[in-house]
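Memo to structure team: turn this sequence into structure tokens by end of day. - J.P.
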Amino acid sequence: MRRWFFVLLLSLCSLKTRASNPADSVKKEGFVVLPLLYYTPDTRLAAGAAAVYYFRTATATATEAAPRLSYVQLLGDYTQNRQLDIWSLWSVFTKAEKYLIRGELRYRNFPDRYFGIGNATTRDQEERYSYDLFSLKLLLMQRFGQYWFAGFDYSLRHEFNFRYLTPGELSAAAVTGSAGGTGSALGGVITFDSRDNIVNASKGQFFEFSTYRYHPVLGSSFNFTALNAVYSHYWSLPNRLILAANGVARANFGQVPFLDLAKVGNDDILRGYPGNRFRDRHYVAGQAELRFPVYKRFGGVAFAGLGDVFGEAGDLSLQRIKYSIGTGLRYALNKQEKLNARLDVGVGREGPAFYISVAEAF
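Reply from structure team:
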């Protein structure tokens, strides 16, 4: 949800360097600390701080370009909904970008809301609860071809200390995972990325497919399989217009805890719905966005999306499918890196939602 934190940090990192030769345009390493401020329907106003150390694992040679920036990041934030999040991320490109090593270590204390399972739940089904989360992810990918990476991932999630603030399905233990537990999985990931800029692409494509197998043999409390796919395409049009399209899909099979179910909405797709409003086993959604200049550092977007969660294909219907239309304002924080601050207003079936963050939705 807050993937744009490290995008912001790395973009600002590109303005600083400890390169031994001032004439060397390839940044070597550096350290940055920044405040954080954002707003989403799930968190309301949130504030915190982040620190990142960035570096390159090798320098350029006459025959080989330097690898892209690697980084190690630590951030912490606290929201108006009393949600605490402490999160460390790392991403390391080895020499010649032959391998990519990623990881995540996280602790969250997270008051949240549950409205039931399915795409026809109502607001009066709301239950309030809170829980603690510890998670660990380790990913190793190898490069093949110009734009492809593939590899293996390990994911560990431990959810504990559940507290039920209102009675309902969760407090009655009628939902898988309502008392917490451990999810331990091995996964495979394949990625294609030909975008001209990962922060704000104007052309190219991005595709990622991943699958995770949670099983008691791995120490998991649950036994299920998760499949995920993301695809984005960008076109550069006349008059500095950019047309972007994005699609996502998720499918879960087996004994799926409710926190791992697919969910509608977020600050990246189907803007206009809180991320926890609708959830079920499967999810499919798509959106298109037109990006255009307005005046100097200001720009704008218009977007529309369509999608829904469902347990079976028969659960999908035109009467229930979730739509999102909206517009947004952009301000260029870093014109060279094409990094924007954004204010979006998305309207769905249950009214508008507002988002303040950094970097594009996709």
